[in-house]
């Protein structure tokens, strides 16, 4: 279970990594840094955090396997929801209802917060006998 979600999380993070570096290069090339907060969250939440979770699941075995799936889904939905919501909130490129955009942004952030809280719990639920020896 952990190995499957590890690869999924790392692939998801890689997509965010390329999007984040593309946005950064666009900002640099155009000298327009208005997307700075979105760029930062794409790289910190979508790339760094999700990648770290993927590596954690590569190294550790978790006692309660279902938590790995729940955490991974929450993390991916939260990272995508927060960053897309932030982009829509700041730019509203589709002229969507402001309330809808704000709720989308808040729901994404809330899912991400839940993923981080669940991850804290999961770090205390590692199966000590089955973990890889990293020495």
Automatic annotation (TrEMBL):
InterPro entries: Cyt_c_oxase-like_su1_sf. Keywords: Membrane, Transmembrane, Transmembrane helix. The chain crosses the membrane at residues 9-26, 38-56, 68-89, 101-126. SUPFAM superfamilies: Cytochrome c oxidase subunit I-like. It comes from the Bacteria. This is Uncharacterized protein. The lineage of its organism: Bacteria, Bacillati, Bacillota, Bacilli, Bacillales.
